[in-house]
Amino acid sequence: MLRASEKRIHLGQNLPEPELLHRRSTARWYREYVLSLVPAAYWLCDEPSGLPADVAGSGLAMTGVNGSPTYSEAGPFTNPCIGYPSGAYHERAVVSTRTNDMSVCMWVRRDGTPTNGGDIFTHGSTSGGFALEYNSTGGLVRVNLPGVGTLGNIVAGSAGLNDLTWFFLFAGKATGAGGTWSAGWNGQLGSVGTGNPGTPTGNERLNGQAATQTRLAHVAFFDRMLTQNEVSTLYQIGQKAVIPL
């Protein structure tokens, strides 16, 4: 029979070398963690051509294109992305008609001056759903709810969103249909207001009213509100600050 110390040595010999744990790409770590959170739909936006595929297993790939998106440009953590010049967008039929908790997160980069009120992501049409859109004052992003109006800016402070810089964008709603909306960028959440967006009835759109040269990658939609820890972990993985276990 092996003594305790011998057992530890024996088990240790079956472990991978420590550096092997760091060889997996950041993009792969990020994708695996998103999938572990069970998204309703997850579009990597890394296709070399064609429409953004849904890798969440729900079959909710984008099915329509307007304009001329550009494919396989450099994205966050060396992963490809899709660029959206003015007037370009992808869409599909409704991903979810939930009026209760939901959330969406993505990596965004703008390469030019955005159109004020230009959508980045929409969940449903003007008769329901919500939009993440640019507020050109200071390069901010805000939430817009039909029937409620514009809620608070997501990016606080005077710096806004710098051109040619990837940032992590998140927005979600908890506590039911008329609940509180939280949003944030680069892992930090704050309240942006309270309201019911109604029942989503239209299409989901990526860059629905495209601002000039906006790029998107790793867009994930959830039928629940993510926690602060989950949001922070997503951002930290993108920054290579953590490796999820």
Give a written overview of the molecule.
The chain contains three helices and 15 strands. With 245 residues, it is mostly beta strands. It has a single domain, classed as Jelly Rolls, CATH 2.60.120. The strands form two sheets. Strands 1, 3, 4, 6, 11, 12, 13 and 15 form an eight-stranded antiparallel β-sheet that branches. The longest helix has 11 residues, at 26-36.
Summarize the structure.
The chain has 245 residues and is mainly β. The chain has helices spanning 4-12, 26-36, 228-238, and strands at residues 41-43, 64-66, 70-74, 80-84, 89-92, 102-110, 119-123, 130-135, 140-145, 149-153, 167-173, 180-185, 188-194, 204-206, 214-222.
Q: Top keywords for this entry?
A:
single chain, 245 residues, mainly beta, Jelly Rolls, 8-stranded antiparallel β-sheet, 7-stranded antiparallel β-sheet, disordered N terminus
For the secondary structure, the number of strands is 15
The tally of domains stands at 1
Oligomer: single chain
Helix content: 10-25%
Indicate the radius of gyration in whole angstroms. Answer: 19 Å
**CATH-level-2 architecture:** Sandwich
- Report the biggest beta sheet as strand number plus sense, adding barrel if it closes: 8 strands, antiparallel
CATH topology: Jelly Rolls
Poorly predicted parts: 1-21
SS summary, helix count: 3
Element order, helices and strands? HHEEEEEEEEEEEEEEEH
Could you give the distance between the termini?
A: 32 Å
Secondary structure class reads: mainly beta
Mean pLDDT: 82
Question: Would you state the CATH class?
Answer: Mainly Beta
The general outline is globular
Fraction of residues in β-strands = 25-35%
